[in-house]
Each structure stands twice: as structure tokens, then as C-alpha cells.
Amino acid sequence: MSNEREMADTRAKESDRQSIAKNRAARHEYEILDTFEAGLVLTGTEVKSLREGRANITDAYGTVRNGELWLLNAHISPYGSGGYVNHEPTRTRKLLLHQREIRRLIGAVERQGLTLVPLELYFQRGRAKVAIALVRGKKLHDKRDDARRRDAERDIARAFRKR
Prior knowledge:
Elements: H1 2-16, E1 17-22, H2 24-29, E2 30-40, H3 44-51, E3 55-56, E4 61-65, E5 68-72, E6 75-76, E7 93-96, H4 99-112, E8 115-124, E9 127-137, H5 140-162
Antiparallel strand pairs: 1-8, 2-7, 2-9, 3-6, 4-5, 5-7, 8-9
């Protein structure tokens, strides 16, 4: 019975999550080592623009400054009815994480030469969140291997469907 309850809880959590923008290229370009959920510090017009789904995170990345994590180059279009209080579309935005997660990410980025890349921007229970990943860049041969593996899995699945 507890297993059924856990499954219902995960379904409820997934339904709470309203996706705004995804970075599909990140999974192709990078090897994802670990993912984190971070909050964002936003202005009012940015939130309204996000509710309209007007965001792009394909060129965005995370960086470390003064012991804090920041999201750079995330494009949130200006709000249509914003007027003079509108925000700058690609301004630097602060990421909110637990202190131990920040320390861990700082160590990985500075010592191991890894990169922080956003995977998805979404609302969860009314709060804007970003799924940020600790990644290592893929080489060309790694990308080819992944494509070959996907093709093989697709062929296997096709063969099983025919049987």
C-alpha cells in the first residue's frame, strides 16, 4: 500500500511541474554528471513573461562569483505590458541552492573544470525553478557513439514489435 501511495505522490509532484523552456541541445552536447534543482531570483515582469512561456535557455550557463551561483545568458523576453519597469532580457540571475550544494558545485567547477548548464526552466507550486546540471563536454566520437547506440536500440525495439 505504501508503494501505491509513493507512486501517487510522484505523479502529483510531476503534475505540479509546469515546464516553460527546455535545453534539448544540452543532452547532445554534454555528458550529464549530476543534476540539481535551483530557485531563481526574478523581478515581477520576468515572472509574468515566464508565465506566458517566453524564455530561452539554450545559450545559458552557470558560473561562480563570490561564493554564489549565477545564471548567465538566459533570455527572458520583456513583458508586453511592462512599460518602463521592464527587465533586461539577458541579465545575470542569481541561483538559489542549499549551502552544501553550492560548496559542492563550486568545488566541481573550479577544481575539476566542469560546467553548469540549465536543462529545464519550470514552475513548481508557483515558484520558478531551473534544473541545472553539472556537465562535461562530449567529444565528437562520443556523440557518434551515442547516435549509434540510439539507432541500435531503435532497431531492437522495432524487431521486438514485429514479433
